[in-house]
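Colleagues,

For the teaching module next term, I've prepared a clean inverse folding example: a structure given as tokens, and then the sequence designed for it. I'd like students to try predicting residues themselves before seeing the answer, so please don't circulate the second half yet.
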């Protein structure tokens, strides 16, 4: 049966820390060096931690710093002494136990100096009952698992900051667009007034010239038919009167003394003469 590696982080309830001796250091400046960005630090000498597992090997990881000191790890009455002092902060292997029988083992860790910390514990097992998780995952006891307060607070603060920045950005955009619109409207009005008023002289605008009313083009008078010159002077001819009218005319008209006949009207005489002349000309 293939063996698997199971990773247990420092905030897992499978690791038992002595009360009052360990603190959560999620706000540490070097937190990015640790797995899952979390570790449990012992700030007092004698602080202890214990862990039980079923497997053939176990590896304990922790930090190395300038203010850290000696520590002890005990497994099956086998003790390993170590020192976590380092000038440069780093995370490394505190101790390992390999070649173990596939049975239940009890691991005990104690701070023997000024300070130390625990990042994670990885154990190797072939047991079918072990969870099939690799070292990149964390084994949790779902019945006792608790959420890490530091991580929750950091996540909450990050979400709040992101939402606040988005809200501020949207609000700033809306205010900018409104101000731009309020500035643009007077400019458009000014341009429109300039176009309607026309040229501006000495700061005073001339009133616009009212448009001229539409006028109908003068209609040309129809040419009148010209009357011939000969027709202008020609008198109007009389129609031949009836018999009764002739007799009345004879009685009323003066008679010629020589020929004893009625005298012709001068106009009729002229008209006949003019007609005779026209015929002769033709």
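(Answer key — instructors only)
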């Amino acid at each position: 049966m293939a063996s698997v590696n199971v990773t247990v982080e420092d905030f897992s309830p499978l690791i038992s820390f002595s009360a009052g001796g360990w603190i959560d250091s999620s706000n540490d400046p070097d937190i990015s060096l640790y797995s899952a960005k979390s570790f449990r630090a012992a700030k007092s000498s004698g602080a202890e931690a214990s862990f039980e597992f079923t497997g053939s090997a176990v590896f304990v990881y922790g930090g190395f710093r300038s203010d850290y000191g000696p520590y002890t790890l005990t497994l099956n009455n086998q003790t390993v002494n170590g020192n976590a002092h380092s000038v440069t902060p780093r995370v490394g292997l505190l101790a390992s136990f390999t070649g173990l029988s596939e049975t239940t083992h009890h691991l005990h860790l104690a701070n023997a100096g000024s300070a130390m910390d625990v990042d994670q514990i990885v154990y190797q097992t072939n047991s079918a009952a072990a969870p099939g998780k690799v070292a990149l995952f964390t084994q949790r006891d779902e019945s006792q698992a608790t959420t890490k307060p530091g991580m929750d607070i950091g996540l909450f603060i990050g979400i709040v900051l992101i939402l606040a920045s988005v809200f501020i950005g949207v609000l700033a955009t809306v205010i900018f667009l409104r101000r731009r619109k309020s500035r643009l409207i007077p400019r458009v009005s000014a341009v429109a007034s300039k176009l309607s008023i026309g040229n501006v002289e000495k700061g005073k605008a001339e009133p616009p010239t009212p448009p001229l009313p539409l006028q109908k083009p003068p209609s040309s008078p129809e040419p009148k038919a010209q009357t011939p010159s000969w027709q202008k002077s020609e008198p109007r001819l009389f129609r031949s009167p009836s018999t009764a009218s002739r007799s009345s005319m004879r009685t009323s008209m003066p008679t010629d003394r020589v020929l004893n006949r009625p005298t012709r009207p001068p106009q009729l005489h002229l008209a006949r003469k003019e007609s005779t002349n026209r015929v002769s000309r033709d």
